[in-house]
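Retry 2 of 3 after timeout on previous attempt. Resubmitting structure tokens to design endpoint.
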């Protein structure tokens, strides 16, 4: 009898662990001009809808089969024309393409990579939206918590604009799954008019959000709030794109959140003004060897391949 109870407890623990580690996807791309693409069927992507009217950041998340859960963006376009602009006009939209309950007034300053969505490792219905205050009007790193157990699955913002720090954050926050497969890392850099090269990894686990010790590593940034931070496909390298034509690569330990072994690629802006962003594509290779990831750096209409 005791052995059966032990097996039952073990089975419940396994099921609970599996439930808390649901695989969410990004199959619904909501854009900032009333458009979207639904990649639920990867062989036949379909035009879709978005109610975002934003110049800048758009972020979305789907369930494991690709059905949209919710999306978010930075301020409405028309609000730029207001005599006094409110820099907390970011917003959250539910899967029915309606403003989520309490989904208004999220910090956002019209830039391009200032929001990222991360699942709560302790609750399958909860998600964090991290948002960056890039300008000194709303300086800092913030998070808001979404709970989809409210309103018959349409969700509710249950915590809003919790401030983690007060300095100006580069327009490039990003996230990657922890090496344990459950938790997450959120990465942010700051900028100022004085040289800085700090980078901080924030651990998101069942206990909440905790900052790793800040590291000073890589190139110094002065008056440069447009750094783009992007992980490669397996999360082992973080790339920092600087608009002046420099790309940095860091090794990243997904278990302890430590950056190391910085490499710099210089003069990637020639003959144009600089580098705006980067994306990673999986490249097929002989299956006996590891899969290669090709880094494509776009300079206007030109691509430079770095292996």
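Retry 2 succeeded. Sequence:
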């Amino acid at each position: 009898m005791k052995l059966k109870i032990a097996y039952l407890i073990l089975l419940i623990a396994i099921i609970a662990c599996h439930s808390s580690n649901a695989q969410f996807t990004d199959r619904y791309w909501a854009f900032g001009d009333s458009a979207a693409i639904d990649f639920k069927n990867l062989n036949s992507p379909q035009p879709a809808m978005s109610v975002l009217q934003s110049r800048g950041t758009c972020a979305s998340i789907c369930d494991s089969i690709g059905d949209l859960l919710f999306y978010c963006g930075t301020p409405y376009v028309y609000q730029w024309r207001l005599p006094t602009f409110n820099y907390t006009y970011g917003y959250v939209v539910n899967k029915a393409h309606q403003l989520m309950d309490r989904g208004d007034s999220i910090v956002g300053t019209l830039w391009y990579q200032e929001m990222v969505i991360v699942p709560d490792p302790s609750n399958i219905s909860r998600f964090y939206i991290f948002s960056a205050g890039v300008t000194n009007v709303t300086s800092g790193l913030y998070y808001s918590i979404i709970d989809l157990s409210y309103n018959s699955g349409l969700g509710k913002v249950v915590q809003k604009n919790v401030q983690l720090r007060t300095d100006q954050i580069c327009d490039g926050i990003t996230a990657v799954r922890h090496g344990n497969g459950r938790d997450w890392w959120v990465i942010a850099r700051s900028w100022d008019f004085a040289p800085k090269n700090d980078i901080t990894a924030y651990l998101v686990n069942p206990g909440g959000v905790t900052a790793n010790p800040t590291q000073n590593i890589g190139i110094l940034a002065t008056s440069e709030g447009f750094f783009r931070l992007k992980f490669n496909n397996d999360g082992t390298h973080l790339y920092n794109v600087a608009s002046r034509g420099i790309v940095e690569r860091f090794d990243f330990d997904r278990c302890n959140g430590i950056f190391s072994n910085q490499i710099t690629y210089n003069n990637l802006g020639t003959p144009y003004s600089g580098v705006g962003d980067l994306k990673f594509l999986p490249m097929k290779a002989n299956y006996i060897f590891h899969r290669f990831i090709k880094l494509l750096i776009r300079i206007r209409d030109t691509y430079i391949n770095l292996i």
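Attempt log closed. The chain is about 5% helix and 40% strand.
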